[in-house]
Design a protein that fits this description.
With 166 residues, the chain is mostly helical. Helices cover 67% and strands 0% of the residues. The longest helix has 32 residues, at 132-163.
Length: 166
Amino acid sequence: MSKSIYTATERAARCVLTLEQAVYQACKTRRGALGQIAEVYGVNYNTLALQVNPNRTCHTLAPETIELVLEHTQSPRIMDAICAAHGNAGWFLLPDDNNQCDEMVDIALLGQKFADLNSTSLDAYADKVIEPDEYASMQKDGHALISHIQTILKNAERNMERHNDR
């Protein structure tokens, strides 16, 4: 797999993107998202479209724009990109307080996420050369695994607090 290059669509689905690419994908994945963001937050649609387009240099992507897009789309790609840019950070969504999770399903999903990372890593190391797309794919699977572990721990903490009233 080492010499293959992902298409833009495959890269968006399988890899951790740059922040600019992640914001662009978040706006373009769901039809009409850019227009909804412009309408809800009262920003100019054309300016917003130019700011989120990574191929345009006439407008820069301001932190406020990233915040608007993240708030509206709740895109995990943006969070992945921010953590990757930091280099030593991770993120996870806190489960809802009223979430009655099935711990066995969570643990089974943890095994699946580990298997995904294992498979991606084995494919990448098959020829002893890690390509940038392969590394980005490994990074995305690794972040998903860590995120799921944090979710399981948070659910376990809530269960402990609920059943150990002292």
